Amino acid sequence: MADDIILETHDLRMEFAGFVAVGGVDLRVRRGTIHALIGPNGAGKTTVFNLLTKFLRPTHGRIVYNGRDITALAAPDVAQLGMVRSFQISAVFPHLTVLENVRVALQRKRGASFDFWRSKRVLDALNDRALALIADVGLAPFAYATAVELPYGRKRALEIATTLALDPDMLLLDEPMAGMGHEDIERISALIKRVAADRTVLMVEHNLSVVADLSDHITVLTRGRVLAEGDYATVSGNAAVREAYLGVGHA
Prior knowledge:
The protein is of the alpha/beta class. The chain has helices at residues 45-52, 75-81, 86-89, 98-109, 120-124, 127-136, 152-164, 182-195, 208-214, 232-236, 239-244, and strands at residues 5-16, 19-25, 28-30, 34-38, 60-65, 68-69, 83-85, 170-174, 200-204, 217-222, 225-230. The chain has 11 helices and 11 strands.
């Protein structure tokens, strides 16, 4: 069963000047699942994400990815191992086209420096893969549009495409539906389902209907600690969860 766990933490803690932001979190994410991390504001979700992706170093505890202790690794090293947080590499260049943005991300996957000064032939060799990724996220009609022209939901799809260009085994999504209307939420939800067909996804998400629709497993945090775990039916039926989170009226 240990082989089924792609990511786990052991007594993960983070303190800031005496304030306990994360107070001993044991997290286990199964390979090939969509795992949601939810909780009210201030529950520690973003801090946990920052710890997992090495933007913060824990005060105490261990992080194990694919059986390897990554607690002391730097963020770029973790991304190279295949665990990528969407914004880590999806800083979209607003005045490049969709195709150019994805092509830049593919250059990072090659492990070489950016080929801004390389020949057009070298760059065009990446086009087929870039266009396939663009089609995968539903942006084929926008391939030659500049990123700044895209509606918000399409920009998020482009961010996911640039993330997928690194071919991650595990994708961490921090509030992927934030600021979206109903149509965009449906589109990005469908995209996440497609992405998760052969990857593991861990996401922080406030929209509980999205969590219910997408998640195989849910971890509920409150005050930096795990309050409950299970599928949506289990956690939504938990009285402590309803009091701490669902009853708050957070959507």
